[in-house]
Amino acid sequence: MADDNPIRFGLIGCAEIARKLSRAINLAPNTTLSAISSRSIEKAQQFRSKNGLPETVTIYGSYDQVLDDPQIDAVYMPLPTSLHVKWAVLAAQKKKHLLLEKPTALDVGELDEILETCRSNGVQFMDGTMWYHHPRTAKMKELVSDSLLFGQIRSIHSTSTFAETPEFFEHNIRVKPDLDALGALGDTGWYCIGAILWAMNHRLPTTVVASPPAHRNSAGIILSCTASLHWDDVDPQAVATFHCSFLSHVSMDLALRGSNGSVHLEDFIIPYEESCAFFDFTSGAKFVDLHIGWNVKPERVEVSSTLPQEALMVQEFGRLVKGVRDCGRSPDEKWPEISRMTQLVLDAVNKSIDLGFVPISL
């Protein structure tokens, strides 16, 4: 049921991902897209037309204009990472709640500046990691948290890869040091790190170490890398690894292995289908006599979704913003904390690579 007083969104930038989010904003029952801003009014008009948005959506030819619009409650910001700190800080200073595309910043120092400005201005912050909000994620957490069925977590592995075209490597902002200097680590590695932290109930690892080789382009941007995370202080038996790349066939694997069970899925970032997603769960598996087979097969667990995961993310963000706007609540600190942990680990992987694949303590 549509909300009669929805959260009114403005777009800061017309990147390709903004097409998906503009759809999500209009699908979520408690939000609406009210304005689009770009560096040129022509580009904003083209975005509105291309995506079939109504003429009632206001068009602005600069980012400042949408931030100065008193009718806008929140902004979605899919700008290049190098521009995040400037425009996210300005948005928070203008009291606009902030849904910020990942990676959130070039390093945790920049992110801390953004988060502190959000806190001091009473602004809700959330990054654009959509898969957290799919009901499948909650179902996986339910099973992984079952000490009898799954047990204690022992290993985690995640991948996020896709093979790109020569045009991508020539022109895309994700391979340009002045725009998105974190490359594949920031773009695809963000999801891998987030999945690992989610599986570990957002306990930071004690040590992070990248594994050679890390492939870079001629400008020094990471195109592919691998790393491991360790929790020596709280769970020395747990280890996590991830691989992210612009050079390999598309993959979005997540494998969780516990002392009694395991979870595996191949589409954790973007489900194969919008309306239904699944994962494989195995518990109590053993080899049969003579080791010629298993005593159980994985159970396929299916979870339906009434809305696409990006619309569920926007709906949750809208719920939190309405609590601040309409009920005087404080912004929820859960999402800023998750973003900051992810950024901290990402920074550690980057540092390990730069220093010659040495362990980095957190």
From TrEMBL:
<feature type="domain" description="Gfo/Idh/MocA-like oxidoreductase N-terminal">
    <location>
        <begin position="7"/>
        <end position="126"/>
    </location>
</feature>
<comment type="similarity">
    <text>Belongs to the Gfo/Idh/MocA family.</text>
</comment>
<feature type="domain" description="GFO/IDH/MocA-like oxidoreductase">
    <location>
        <begin position="139"/>
        <end position="263"/>
    </location>
</feature>
<dbReference type="Pfam" id="PF22725">
    <property type="entry name" value="GFO_IDH_MocA_C3"/>
</dbReference>
<dbReference type="Pfam" id="PF01408">
    <property type="entry name" value="GFO_IDH_MocA"/>
</dbReference>
<dbReference type="InterPro" id="IPR055170">
    <property type="entry name" value="GFO_IDH_MocA-like_dom"/>
</dbReference>
<protein>
    <submittedName>
        <fullName>Oxidoreductase, N-terminal protein</fullName>
    </submittedName>
</protein>
<dbReference type="InterPro" id="IPR036291">
    <property type="entry name" value="NAD(P)-bd_dom_sf"/>
</dbReference>
<dbReference type="GO" id="GO:0000166">
    <property type="term" value="F:nucleotide binding"/>
</dbReference>
<dbReference type="InterPro" id="IPR000683">
    <property type="entry name" value="Gfo/Idh/MocA-like_OxRdtase_N"/>
</dbReference>
